[in-house]
Amino acid sequence: MSTDSDDTPDTEVAREKLIDLAAEFYDQFAEGDVPTMTIPTRTKSNIEYDEDKDVWVYGDRTSTRSAKTVSGAEKLLKATYTIDFLARQLDEDRSSTLRELYYLSESWDVEEAQFNSQDESNDLVEDLEIVSDVTREDFHMRPEESGATIMGPLKLREQTRRGEREIHCQKDVGEGGYQIPNNPDTIEFLENDADFVLCVETGGMRDRLVENGFDEEYNVIVVHLKGQPARATRRITKRLHDELDLPVVVFTDGDPWSYRIYGSVAYGSIKSAHLSEYLATPAAQFVGIRPEDIVEYDLPTDPLSDSDINALESELEDPRFQTEFWKEQIELQLDIGKKAEQQALASRGLDFVTDTYLPERLSEMDVI
Amino acid sequence: MSTDSDDTPDTEVAREKLIDLAAEFYDQFAEGDVPTMTIPTRTKSNIEYDEDKDVWVYGDRTSTRSAKTVSGAEKLLKATYTIDFLARQLDEDRSSTLRELYYLSESWDVEEAQFNSQDESNDLVEDLEIVSDVTREDFHMRPEESGATIMGPLKLREQTRRGEREIHCQKDVGEGGYQIPNNPDTIEFLENDADFVLCVETGGMRDRLVENGFDEEYNVIVVHLKGQPARATRRITKRLHDELDLPVVVFTDGDPWSYRIYGSVAYGSIKSAHLSEYLATPAAQFVGIRPEDIVEYDLPTDPLSDSDINALESELEDPRFQTEFWKEQIELQLDIGKKAEQQALASRGLDFVTDTYLPERLSEMDVI
């Protein structure tokens, strides 16, 4: 197997940072101290909104894992075995999934180092991300599924383990588009003729935009979010914004769960607050479906369920939604008691979304 | 927008068959008869196993929709409006999703023709498939999501609405692979250097095989099933088998739900019995995870839940699983009370699946 991406600086940096962590335990032992590892407390109460960066980050509270107790010592032992595995994985330019790590631990020679559940190994990998300031992708840990796609006027180079591939995301792909790899930092953007990026929640709407040639007519890079977007999808969206200086617009269903999808693209999530700077695109704008669209375009709707209402009310308290715009929209939605899907726009004809809705709205937003 | 695929014979045939259905209503009116539509009864009791073709098909029982009653007349009215929409869609070389059809009906001028729920429009489209003997894909109805991928020594030509694309599913794609389009009958197989097709349930295992270069070493076309496979995935699997004369092997988790995934690739499902001949690959073989693997390789397991046990017991009664092999495996599994995931093979090391497990098993099965 080719190892073209071996010894790239990122891989080397990640490996060194991991080894440094283990070396710290070693030094603590050598100095006669009880080994410890200190990490930010990862609870909702220790999440802060960073006004400057516009993203969620961890607060100042920390907790310490110490080998003073048996359970603390076991945690550090597991960390050491995991660091050893990851360092070797990086050395050999391999990768693995979180689930494989969990199963693989069964082959470790010390039983106390083996994980009792996948939650335990997942949490440990997140701890290592936080402490080492290296992302899971740079450890070469893959998710179980990614699967989102890109279609638009963008030519890129992907560094695969079989060599480089240059792919134009309209001319060199089928109607399904370009499949985003698990680690999109293997991608280099070569050329583009794009005016903005449109992130789309559902596959049905993604296919509609592509069929109607919206990406060609408006020079749009269409990113399929596939519901709550995977890390790879959020990462490439951020890179498209930062590196190509393209506006990012998010297009979802009109319900509280979809507003959270927008929130996770724009601001990051509580679960991955340590990665907000790596994954979030604070400049991302929300195009719709907005509650005002339900009224203005008389869209087919479903009534809000109790859990929808609760979710909307909790969004009214959510720092990410403390703007005039969101307050108005959420209060309007609670008032009318209705939600609508992206594809409800089809009630005005299959071309309404690309001929009328998006052009009108994007021009109001100064995107086109 | 280009309309290269306009006027292909398939599109024309589909359009004519739809028009014929509507013409039948017209003739019934003209002769002074009450219009009716007769379709096979679509219940579990009217499903038969076709021994010759090795697939599920509908039995002889039929039910008749007649305009004698208001509700029957409304059903036929909806069918007529839908036929009109589909015929125009084919004429214009457009496509749409089932959900768009449901919403679009709100724009129809006669209120009684509009659908009350998406179940109603979905069922009607299936009825039209059965009566016209044309598949949904040939009506240009897309699913909401497809998203499975292919990686392997296969060069194909996809007819997109922007022209033809020639893609080699190893050399011209990134690590994510080639994205199967919604209607894989737009694909023509050009060249291949493949010895067999391996359909893989989970993304984690698909990525493992690709990382380990299994597709290159054994000349395998790796098809990612993504859990219960979409119609597009089953269709292309069948075409790879039929047209390229390649053995098809299915590799899933070792639990009753995964055996059903194998069953749907091999024999079709009850829900789409009218499509078994179009979607099913009766010659597909099951490689594992088998209950005997749990014992033989001492894999990490989870205990069977009550619903697992019920599902296994119902598979013992299922005509699709009436073979010596499946009886033995299912009885063994009920006996040991355990299930295992594909990735549990990682407990023997990350290369065990590609260096040992698959080569041993596939050679026993005479596939390699």
Question: Which key phrases capture this entry?
Answer:
homodimer; 368 residues; alpha/beta; Arc Repressor Mutant, subunit A; Dna Topoisomerase Vi A Subunit, Chain: A, domain 2; 6-stranded mixed β-sheet
Largest sheet of chain A: 6 strands, mixed
- Helical residue percent band of chain A: 40-55%
How many domain units of chain A?
A: 2
Rg of chain A, please? 23 Å
CATH architecture of the largest domain in chain A: 3-Layer(aba) Sandwich
Reading the helices and strands of chain A in chain order gives: HEEEEHEHHEEEEEEEHHEHEHHEHEHHEH
Count the strands of chain A? 17
- The quaternary organization reads as homodimer
Instruction: Estimate what percentage of residues of chain A fall within beta strands.
Output: 15-25%
List strands and helices in order, with pairings.
The structure is a homodimer of 368-residue chains.
Chain A: H1 9-30, E1 36-40, E2 47-50, E3 55-58, E4 62-66, H2 70-91, E5 96-97, H3 98-104, H4 118-132, E6 141-142, E7 149-151, E8 154-160, E9 163-168, E10 178-179, E11 187-192, E12 196-200, H5 203-211, H6 214-217, E13 220-224, H7 231-244, E14 248-251, H8 256-266, H9 276-279, E15 285-288, H10 291-296, E16 302-303, H11 306-317, H12 324-336, E17 338-339, H13 352-364
Parallel strand pairs in A: 5-6, 12-13, 12-14, 14-15
Antiparallel strand pairs in A: 1-4, 2-3, 7-10, 7-13, 8-9, 8-11, 16-17
Pfam families (chains A, B): TOP6A-Spo11_Toprim, Topo_VI_alpha, TP6A_N
Catalytic activity (chains A, B): ATP-dependent breakage, passage and rejoining of double-stranded DNA
InterPro entries (chains A, B): Spo11/TopoVI_A, Spo11/TopoVI_A_N, Spo11/TopoVI_A_sf, Topo_VI_alpha, TopoVI_A, TOPRIM_Topo6A/Spo11, WH-like_DNA-bd_sf
